[in-house]
Specification:
Blueprint: E1 4-12, E2 16-21, E3 24-29, H1 32-37, E4 44-54, E5 57-63, H2 66-75, H3 83-104, H4 107-111, H5 118-128, H6 132-136, H7 138-142, H8 170-182, H9 187-199, H10 205-216
Helix pairs in contact: 2-3, 3-5, 8-9, 8-10, 9-10
Region (Domain III): 170-219
InterPro entries: DNA_helicase_Holl-junc_RuvA_I (IPR013849), NA-bd_OB-fold (IPR012340), RuvA (IPR000085), RuvA_2-like (IPR010994), RuvA_C (IPR011114), RuvA_C_sf (IPR036267)
Keywords: ATP-binding, Cytoplasm, DNA damage, DNA recombination, DNA repair, DNA-binding, Helicase, Hydrolase, Nucleotide-binding
């Protein structure tokens, strides 16, 4: 499995780049959001990758961060969400936006992605709401883990695993607090929202995140 590639951009297209790694050119498909953040031909780049394997097809998909790659992997576990739909969702919302939408059950935001209908958007929100916290917690690990431009150029294979999500109590509060901070909320605001959610009966991590996000949402 190819988990990450570091090299130089040999060619840019509308939906992919060819990344030259040690003289080998890898075709890596990316969302418009990811392509916009990459440099031009000849510049160094690094992408986390996921390999799609079919009988008649081998296709690499690239992501600027580990967090976005893990969201892609989780999204494609939902029936009807293939690589194209997942890339459309991530390209529209970004990894943080996907986390918020799923945690809040906001399927209308997911529907905004090109080619994603209301039924599929609802399925994504419903099926992933309890799995999302583990991926959201990766934000802290992900920070700086795979910069878009590396210090050196060379091939590397990395296959990380997501952390487990503890149940209720202090462990769930800590996990929820970490996820909210990874979404950009100030520690004081996140801590207050998690404490209020726990005080009103939320016990598991997913429930705390959903309840806290509702408290943090603008009035």
């Amino acid at each position: 499995m190819i988990g990450r590639l570091s090299g130089r951009i040999a060619y840019r297209a509308a939906d992919h780049v060819i990344l030259d790694v040690g003289g080998v050119g890898y075709v890596v498909h990316c969302s418009e959001r990811t392509l916009a953040a990459l440099g031009g031909a000849g510049e160094a780049a690094q992408l986390w990758t996921d390999l799609l394997v079919r009988e008649d097809l081998l296709q690499l998909f690239g992501f600027p961060t580990l967090l976005e790659k893990e969201w892609h992997r989780l999204l494609t576990t939902v029936q009807g969400v293939g690589a194209k739909a997942s890339m459309a969702i991530l390209g529209t919302l970004g990894p943080d936006g996907v986390g918020r939408a799923i945690a809040l059950g906001d399927w209308a935001s997911i529907r905004a992605a090109p080619g994603v209908g209301p039924k599929l958007a609802q399925r994504v929100a419903n099926e992933l709401k309890d799995k999302a916290p583990a991926v959201m917690a990766l934000g802290g690990i992900d920070a700086g883990a795979a910069p878009m431009v590396p210090a050196s150029v060379g091939g590397e294979v990395v296959e990380p695993s997501a952390p487990s999500t503890p149940g209720g109590g202090a462990g769930a509060q800590s996990e929820a607090l970490s996820a909210l901070q990874n979404l950009g909320y100030a520690p004081a605001d996140a801590s207050r929202a998690v404490a209020e959610a726990a005080g009103e009966g939320a016990e598991d991590t997913a429930g705390m995140i959903r309840a806290a996000l509702k408290r943090l949402a603008p009035a």
